[in-house]
Amino acid sequence: MSSFLPAVAEELLREIRNVYQETSQIPDEILLALKFVFGPSALHALDLVDQRAVTVLSSPSGRRVYQVVGGSGHLYTCYTTCHYCPCPAFAFSVLRRSESLLCKHILAAYLCQAMGLSQQETVTDQQMSNILCGKAGPGT
Amino acid sequence: MIVGERCDIKTSLLFLTAITAASELGVKVLFLTPTPIQSLPGSLQDTLANLNPDSLKKIKFMYPRSREELLQDVASLHECACGPSAPYSLIIVDGLERYLGVRPDSSPQPEDQSAAAHVSALLADTAAFLTRKLEERGGAYAPCRVIVSFDVGLQGHSGGESLLCMDPILSILDRYFSVRCTLDRDRSSAAPATAIASDKQPRGVWMVYFSGVGVTARLTAGKEESSIMQRQWRLAVCPNGALEFSPMGTDE
Ligand SMILES: [Zn+2]
């Protein structure tokens, strides 16, 4: 899904991946750059990363999808190859106003992937289908 | 993505694409539409009659009646992508507007935009997954592509292109579909209503424009920088229903 990001954002995520692998932390200048590129959702996304809110679900077919637990405990399903989130911020700031590139949930998924902090979980193919069309969470 | 005013020509084009992909490229095609195709132009019926039945078997029709059913059908495609039969290389959705609850008389609501994004994103993500599966099988039939048609209520309007730019649903679809193919009825060359239908007069003439980031990227990457950004074609519907394409302008 990185082809949906401008080059500067991709570069930034690459840098986070490299720096975090070496030092297990993100230096201040990269935090500033994150805020500059992604706006206020950057800090919220980092909170979600701290809370280990991102889970990569996979099923036997090989299909994968992100599930992000939002601040209110609500579960958001985001696709791995293109930008979509069912949250109100995505509908408003991304789709309607075109003000931001993405919402905090998708950014958190990017960051967790870059930092290797995503949880992993396996579901059945049928559960995956239900999750993909926005029907149900895993095992709930 | 094929965009244009309400007309049957888009269904015919999509059907022709499905047949061509199945018979000439040998790939599997999934054709999603809310209602079974009732009638086909004569030329397509001839093509069908001459078609190898095995080619036709490569096209699967599904008729999801609602957005929920469409989402469900697309979401479960991954379940059979690991079986013995090859995954689909082409997913076609005819009449996407009918799944998005777009009413011609009222302006789209924010929920409609989210719904359009959800359906488009699921189609795109599914195509990316099936592409990976096709590549695992050697990649001969990769990648998996998605084509949708979308009606815009332009009946009787002129200057359609500017209206298209403002359509809030279309602007969402443009995020997920990198090439837009616009069909614009050419009213100037249409036969006057009083003229007796002649055998040689085309039944309708359409201007076909290609635009979008997919086209722009290809043009800047290739040797075609000098040509205009939008590729234009003329599409004439012949009296026997055959579709005739001819390039327009300086483009080729
Ligand atoms: Zn979100």
UniProtKB/TrEMBL annotation, chain A:
<keyword id="KW-0479">Metal-binding</keyword>
<protein>
    <recommendedName>
        <fullName>SWIM-type domain-containing protein</fullName>
    </recommendedName>
</protein>
<dbReference type="GO" id="GO:0000724">
    <property type="term" value="P:double-strand break repair via homologous recombination"/>
</dbReference>
<keyword id="KW-0862">Zinc</keyword>
<dbReference type="GO" id="GO:0008270">
    <property type="term" value="F:zinc ion binding"/>
</dbReference>
<dbReference type="GO" id="GO:0097196">
    <property type="term" value="C:Shu complex"/>
</dbReference>
<feature type="domain" description="SWIM-type">
    <location>
        <begin position="76"/>
        <end position="114"/>
    </location>
</feature>
<dbReference type="InterPro" id="IPR007527">
    <property type="entry name" value="Znf_SWIM"/>
</dbReference>
<keyword id="KW-0863">Zinc-finger</keyword>
TrEMBL record, chain B:
<protein>
    <recommendedName>
        <fullName>SWIM-type zinc finger 7 associated protein 1</fullName>
    </recommendedName>
</protein>
<dbReference type="GO" id="GO:0003697">
    <property type="term" value="F:single-stranded DNA binding"/>
</dbReference>
<dbReference type="GO" id="GO:0000724">
    <property type="term" value="P:double-strand break repair via homologous recombination"/>
</dbReference>
<dbReference type="GO" id="GO:0097196">
    <property type="term" value="C:Shu complex"/>
</dbReference>
